[in-house]
């Protein structure tokens, strides 16, 4: 805005005739041409406020529900416009299993986190090698393989439906969930590790290690992989957090106890109070916030596979 | 050369290829073995958890008895083609997700533009607010929509207090508008994420040149910036549309519009149990997504499709 207001101010003071006194006593009359800038274009006057308005609206719509939910988990009652009766930890106690309520989220969340950890470990085992092969080598059908590895082609609902029918005995078990989570979330691991590899001179690194006498497996495990540790860590955090609250695949597959976290939330939408539910959801918010904090600490741009240059 | 000879030659070539990959003697063959070893774990998982279940889905859709997978019948496909319900579900899905995609990408362009070009006062807050919902599953998005627009929702009660109407009449969480808001809530962050990556690569010198040559801000955006971010817009549209098609938790909880994922769930529910039809819908859905992605990716670079 400053670039528009500056010339206007100058023109106002410069309008008309200004008598200037000279140091030697005489006087001159300088005629300054009145200079009126053309009005700023429509897009300058309307465009920027419009875009800023849209951005404000988007940020409010995205953040207000999260903040309100988190805040009202500490409230006593939510009847009326704003939640009232601060601060109580009653609902957090219920959710964390310290009270004697049905709404204890911890068993389900712990189950989900264990399975997510299994999926994450499996993802390192399958994701890092293929990310390396795709970045380091040129080979037949590389582009197709790349697309297959980084684009999740089968939606969770359909995969869950097929999974149960294919593996009636193990599909519903923790093992089935681990395999499903791993496949569904593998693109995020491959992408983050790939972007980590792309910023390294892989050929030179490999050739130095080999010429110093390391075998190829040793080069890969002790030289290449440690260099990509930030990418691997970022991929682990993203796949782990996403798997912890996976719903679509889990809902189609799971039938038993304990219910995984997201399925537990779904089953309790009708019999939990609004504040209890707010507290249960807030537990996951805290998990995501800590994941984002760690990601930013290791140089990621937040919850994304894009890295800061 | 006869067909038999040529087949035999092909088989021999493949066998030699396989044996040299397994027991390499030259550096090139060794490299091929390394590539094979590196890709093997992924392929093993993709086969066990992806390809085999998909093949099972095909078998299910043409089975006469879809529970024990016995016999052959095209009943499911005939139902899918003849009953108007399924055409309506397909149309419902496409227009609803398409509209949500268009709105999300437009909003994403605005947010990415503001983040890149303007000096926003709370830029980190904006970035955090825009990237946080990516991690939220559909079920939590639905809970948030209910918390805002439900009968006890904050927005509902605020409007009810101002206008004096009953909150029950105003509640729109389980109306189609509430569902649409839920979709946009999930999709805007994804679109923005892709577009921010594109905006970071825009050539600012060309924009400055256009401005100093007298183009207005709108003309600069339309003639200079927009052509540069067009691949990003295409990538964001593909990703957003795909993500929108896969949304299930939100629509399962809000239940206000029959889209494909909800229909699949209905087909395997008690009372309307038709697993063969569910499998057929699932196959159409997967084929559509794969075709859409591959056709779309012909126009953009693959690595722009991110989280």
TrEMBL record, chain A:
Matches recorded under InterPro entries: MetI-like, MetI-like_sf
GO annotation, biological process: transmembrane transport
Domain of life: Archaea
Annotated spans, Disordered: 1-34
Keyword tags: Cell inner membrane, Cell membrane, Membrane, Transmembrane, Transmembrane helix, Transport
Composition skew (Polar residues), residue ranges: 20-30
Residues of the ABC transmembrane type-1 domain: 109-296
Subcellular location: Cell inner membrane
Membrane-protein topology: Multi-pass membrane protein
Membrane spanning stretches: 50-75, 109-132, 144-167, 173-191, 232-254, 274-298
GO cellular component entries: plasma membrane
PANTHER family for this protein: INNER MEMBRANE ABC TRANSPORTER PERMEASE PROTEIN YDCV (PTHR43357:SF4)
Protein name: Binding-protein-dependent transport systems inner membrane component
Automatic annotation (TrEMBL), chain B:
Domain ABC transmembrane type-1: 90-296
Xref: CDD domains: TM_PBP2
Bilayer-spanning residue ranges: 35-58, 94-115, 127-150, 170-188, 239-258, 278-300
InterPro entries, per the entry: MetI-like, MetI-like_sf
Main location: membrane
Subcellular location(s) of the protein: Cell membrane
GO biological process: transmembrane transport
Pfam families associated with the record: BPD_transp_1
This protein's name: Binding-protein-dependent transport systems inner membrane component
